[in-house]
Design goal:
binds copper (II) ion; 28% helix; 4 helices; 5-stranded mixed β-sheet; binds 2-acetamido-2-deoxy-beta-D-glucopyranose; alpha/beta
Length: 171
């Protein structure tokens, strides 16, 4: 009531800007996914999150690199078996996750996440944000076309959806 809408709107835009670079990666945690391949086209930045989804046949165990190499879940950093495990990638560095059920890690349920600083460009990315030369120019009122990379699309979609929700709340 006492807070002018303009101030609320500025706060909302600031909140959106702060979240603009956070991406959630959904990890379908099972015995059939090749996680080496899954990580290969993704860039994980500090502030991003992972959401592991899995059945009761699995769990998520975070381990140190030495235990990762040998699939040893004996003294984990952390362990979760809720079926839906959210992991915050808070700081740059490597994170190691395995399934603690006997035999699953050695059969491929292991994933190494290399978290880079939030401002780092993805490996091999061109220095400037590129627009496909063949793409038609969108009408001026349209939002920018999302990148073809799934994480970026998630990022953009989440940002737009959040912006809509917050703007509605602000008004
Ligand atoms: C997983 O994918 C990587 C990269 O594409 C490949 O080199 C590897 O052989 C695959 N592993 C399995 C078990 O298929
Ligand atoms: C697994 O790790 C624990 C704790 O570090 C260690 O005591 C145990 O010997 C390891 N097991 C194997 C099979 O290496
Ligand atoms: Cu498992």
């Amino acid at each position: 009531m006492a807070i002018p809408r303009a101030i609320v709107a500025v706060a909302v835009m600031a909140a959106i800007a702060g979240l603009a670079n956070a991406t959630n990666f959904d990890v379908s945690w099972d015995l059939s996914t090749n996680y080496t391949r899954w990580v290969s086209d993704k860039t994980f930045r500090a502030g991003d999150t992972l959401t592991f989804s899995y059945t009761s046949s699995h769990d998520v165990v975070e381990v140190r690199s030495s235990s990762y190499a040998t699939c040893n879940a004996t003294s984990p950093v952390s362990k979760s078996a809720t079926g839906n495990t959210l992991v915050a990638l808070g700081a740059p560095g490597k994170r190691y996750f395995i399934c603690g059920i006997t035999g699953h890690c050695s059969r491929g349920m292991k994933i190494e996440i290399d978290v880079v600083t939030a401002s780092s460009p993805p490996p091999g990315a061109s220095p400037s944000p590129s627009v496909s030369p063949a793409a038609p120019t969108p009408p001026a009122s349209s939002p920018p076309a999302p990148s073809t990379a799934p994480p970026s699309r998630t990022r953009t979609t989440a940002k737009v959806a959040l912006g809509v929700v917050l703007m509605v709340l602000a008004l």
